[in-house]
Amino acid sequence: MGTRRRGSIGERLPVFEGAGVAAADVGVAGGEPVRGGVVLAICSVAAFMAFLDATIVNIAFPNIERSFRGVSPSWLSWIINGYNILFAALLLPAGRLADLVGRRRLFHVGLFVFTAASLLCAAAPTAELLISLRIVQAVGAALLVPTGLGLLLGVLPAERRVAGVAILGAAAAVAAAIGPSLGGFLVTASSWRLVFLVNGPLGIAALLAGSFILPEQRTAAKPPDLLATTLLIGSVGLVALAITQGPSWGWTSWRVLGSFALAAILAAALRIRRRAEEAAEPQALKARIVRTANAATAIFAAAFYAKILNDVLFLTSIWHYSILATGAAITPGPLFTALFAPPAGRAAKRLGLGPVAALGAFIYALGCGWYALRAGVHPNYVRDWLPGTVLTGLGIALAFPTLTTAAVESLPTSLYATGSALNATARQLGGVLGISVVIAIIGQGGISIFHSAYVHGWTFGVGAAAVAALAALLVGRSGTAQSGTDAAAPQHS
Question: Which domain holds residue 264?
Fold first, then answer.
């Protein structure tokens, strides 16, 4: 185990090797030493919870539908998409706010809001209240992600940031992938309400530990642009509404066409607003490698989230698996992701971020293609399902953490929270698109009796992942644009 000195601060910092952590003491408020591994653990738990709730509700959806029989399944889908849209739209302003008022402070606020909303979701007596509480939960999640990554990277030397980002990226990817598996177990053990209660112990433990461990960090930053955030929420929400309601309302109905038209108007207004902002935006955020990595992340996320929902609905409707059996069938995927994550990190260090991410997205496309060609109407798990799970698990391990690293690793220290928020925004916006497309393909009720519908869902995954692979190649061999320390390092107080 070794230590590194950080530029002007000269405090001992954690050393990361691959996916493992060799924790040394790092400086925090008042000069008290903490273990670097503990900081990593707290931030990883926060990321895990936020991204877990982006997918865990998928498998609980049929159970939720039975609890609220008077509500249309298409509107109940906003329990999933409402969370993802608000989560995505609020990440960037949350990152800016964290840089302005303090990452530690906002991290604790996010933990409290997310945990409290989760517990209230578990007790929600009506669908309307559940959807509203999911929106509150999304606000807490949006505060957690950029502040957690910003806190971690704020105590890492430049040469160790890639590994730190990769570990958090892997935690987020595993959380999103394991959501249906864990959800299946919890729903079977009790009901859908348990999928929200699981956040209670994790959130309380992270909140208590963070109060004693995490250092405060803040940098000079502009206040968040609330108008741009509102325009983003409106445009993405209207696109998701049009896609999910298209089969029911009719693709040429005035409601669908009007939703698309209004979304385009809001997007144009957002673009005009962003042009004014871009003049003063740091050049690092406008770098080609940052934008390309975020674009690849969004496209790959569309394939990823679409496949998760498609898998759950296929296993329960075509193979007639129980909720528990469906969760068990999906479980090997995240296990393979966790298994492959350490060698994937080492491969990225040797071969470059872009090539490894592209390889991961291509392998993921092969996995989706395997399901489309092999998963028939008669169940044969080992022969027809498990090989695809190995491929997609490996693809996630190679693609998601590496793209996240490419999107933030080249940024100066002062832009860590903002950069990580941009990447997480791209991921969640891609997820909204992927889920909306699958709902449109499968049908309004979130289920189809036709095998071909699920084949089309996996085919969409093939195409999206293949495009993501091409975009990742443009990232190049390395995301490093700077080396050494940045003069605008965060202030530790």
Answer: 226-279
